[in-house]
Amino acid sequence: MDRWRRLWWVVLPLLLLAGVALSRAGNGAQATAPSPRPIVVLTPTPEPSPTPSPTATPTPVVVYVSGAVVHPGVYTLPAGARVADALAAAGGATPEADLAHLNLARRLRDEEQVYVPRQGEPTLPPATGVPSSNSATPGKVNINTAGVAELDTLPGIGPGYAQRIVAYREQHGPFRTIEDLQKVPGIGPATFARVRDLITVE
User: How far apart are CA 137 and CA 201, in angstroms?
Assistant: First the structure.
């Protein structure tokens, strides 16, 4: 009996030492084990959509429609409009209009005049810039007899105003004085001052 008691007192300390060793080993493993890293969810940031560049708005054209039309006058038409559109805006051509000498498919330019000739009217000569021989005073343009081509040579007039001058005198008769040129729509004091020394009514 004493032998087993002595054996127990030998074995018990060994068991206690083994338990302490196992406990320390467990604590050390827990201390050195890396803690789990948190899971980070990355949400992709949407790329900003490109800002659309502003679209240039086409500039409308303002034209003066005269001659053999139902409603002569100044009309504002969209960019890219053609002579046919100007004719329609003025109520169409009158029965005596001669459309054979009018290019209805031509694109309009701002500030120009669309003159619809009547049947039997002489065709206006093209703008050549050559002075007419019917000018009464040498070196001056007779605004009562000059055609569109000759009037176009005056500074600040251009083909549009030249057609307006021709249309005005056909409707109202010849100019009595050079100052009467300012009665033509669109020709004001500034334009008249540029041409007064270059024109005559003789």
Answer: 9
Q: Are 54 and 104 in contact (CB under 8 A)?
A: no
Which residue is associated with the tokens 């051509």? 93
Q: How many CA atoms lie within 13 A of 139 on its CB side?
A: 2
Element (H, E) at 30: helix 2-32
What count of residues does the chain have?
Answer: 202
Tell whether pTM > 0.70: no
The DSSP symbol for 118 reads B
Residue pLDDT, tens place only, 167-187: 999 998 899 999 999 999 999
SS3 content of the chain, % helix, strand, coil (to 5): 40, 15, 50
| CA-wise closest residue to 176 among 201, 151, 150 | 201
